[in-house]
Amino acid sequence: MKIDTLEAALTAVLGERLKKLVRDRGELTVTVPAANYIESALLLRDHADLKFEQNVDLCGVDYSSYKDQAWEGPRFCVVSHLLSVSKNWRVRLKVFAPDDDVPVVASLTDVWSSVNWFEREAFDLYGIIFEGHNDLRRILTDYGFIGHPFRKDFPVSGHVEMRYDDEQKRVIYQPVTIEPREITPRIIREDNYGGLH
After folding, report:
1. Is residue 121 in some structural domain?
2. pLDDT tens-digit profile of 44-80?
3. Which end of the chain is more exposed for a tag (fewer CB within 10 A), N or C?
4. Sign of torsion over alpha carbons 7, 8, 14, 15
5. Is residue 162 part of a domain?
């Protein structure tokens, strides 16, 4: 099978750089250490047995409470989805940032130019710093935004809200005025509610 060929090639080419290889639901996921991230990406792209010419997606992940349980290991991960057009196969590449307080991994913009805005998005939403990225700045949130909204410890209502101030004739930021609350769904236990029989 094609997936067996790809698994063997990944194992042979990445060698000791391969920290973990998972085969699940007909897909392969390889995890490499942050120290070998660029080297592994170049091998995935350039090696004749792999030929992953395209990085079709890159995103950040916050594993701080994965599957509603305590997570053992580094908190922040960068996940890329690679495509080989010439070989007609795909692989998922994962790397964990070694430091949870200041998550840093190397930028892959010199390997696949398509990751430029994906890395900016992961920086903006998760606070993952991509070392070597030549234009790492926010892409989705406002320039004055504080924090990273996809982190699991970021409050749902945020820290600030903005509104137009008639006196100052401009938009201003102010602390959030929404009262935090827990929404409990309404459960109806009537037999004939809404005319249903």
Report:
1. yes
2. 999 999 999 999 999 999 999 877 777 889 999 999 9
3. C
4. positive
5. no
What does residue 181 show for φ and ψ, rounded to 5 degrees? Answer: -150, 160
- CATH number, domain of 112, equals 3.30.460.80
For residue 190, what are its two tokens?
């009537």
- Residue 75 belongs to domain spanning: 2-139
Radius of gyration of the chain (CA): 22
CA distance 9 to 110: 24
Phi and psi based region of residue 147 (left: phi greater than 0; alpha: psi -120 to 50; beta: remaining): left
For helices 2-14 and 37-46, what crossing angle results, to 10°? Answer: 130
* Cα–Cα nearest to 148, from 162, 130, 127: 127
77 part of a folded domain:
yes
pLDDT, residue 193, reads 63
d(CA 62, CA 152): 7
pLDDT one-digit tens code per residue, 102-154: 999 999 999 999 999 999 999 999 999 999 999 999 999 987 788 899 999 88
* 184 assigned to some structural domain: no
| DSSP H or E run through 89 | strand 89-96
Number of separate domains in the chain: 1
